[in-house]
């Protein structure tokens, strides 16, 4: 074999070897890229799952928070409900309720008051006891609500009462909330005179209750 032919054959082998090396390198690169793509896709899928799960937990937490903030009905107690008598031309009895709990509670319509063990409660000045869709007052923690009984006529003032039985109306017709309780005026050294009168609905302020009773300015 002549020298020129030997050199050409060597060059051909070298070119073939270079081509094979390039092909193998390209194959390895493609394989690495494919694996990387699969890892990226898998990571993205896991991330989406985590977001969905996290979103569900957040929604459940929000629902639980809303449930814990649900307002429940207020209930009477002799240390929560007090009575006081105002005299003069605009004489009236003020009924004051204090929410002694750490949560807001709800009052419906007005208080149901039976003086001296009367069979029927004192009528409301507006509406009837237990009427659905009546006025409500939300009393914040440590807050107050008021109702007023006007006693500015001889008939409405009547005579001095010995006791009163207290019920709070519930959210449905003719329902009450954890009552009744009885307050003995003699034990509390209170002089409360009520006759043929009516009681207002609950109000957030004593002035508002007095206006509803027709004895406010």
From TrEMBL:
DUF4232 domain sequence ranges: 74-202
Listed Pfam families: DUF4232 (PF14016)
Ranges for region Disordered: 28-54
Domain of life: Bacteria
Stated name of the protein: DUF4232 domain-containing protein
């Amino acid at each position: 074999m002549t020298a020129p032919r030997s050199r050409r054959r060597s060059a051909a082998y070298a070119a073939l070897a270079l081509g094979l090396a390039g092909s193998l390198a390209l194959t390895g690169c493609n394989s690495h890229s494919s694996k990387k793509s699969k890892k990226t896709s898998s990571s993205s899928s896991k991330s989406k799952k985590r977001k969905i799960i996290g979103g569900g937990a957040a929604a459940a937490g929000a629902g639980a928070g809303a449930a814990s903030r649900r307002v429940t009905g207020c209930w009477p107690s002799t240390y929560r409900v007090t009575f006081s008598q105002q005299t003069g031309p605009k004489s009236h009895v003020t009924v004051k309720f204090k929410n002694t709990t750490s949560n807001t509670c709800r009052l419906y319509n007005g208080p149901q008051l039976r003086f001296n063990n009367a069979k029927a409660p004192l009528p409301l000045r507006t509406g009837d006891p237990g009427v659905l869709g009546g006025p409500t007052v939300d009393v914040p923690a440590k807050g107050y609500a008021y109702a007023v009984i006007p006693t500015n006529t001889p008939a409405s003032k009547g005579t001095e009462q010995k006791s009163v039985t207290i019920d709070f109306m519930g959210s449905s017709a003719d329902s009450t909330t954890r009552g009744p309780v009885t307050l003995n005026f003699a034990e509390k050294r209170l002089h409360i005179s009520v006759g043929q009168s009516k009681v207002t609905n609950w109000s957030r302020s004593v002035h508002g209750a007095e206006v509803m009773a027709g004895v406010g300015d």
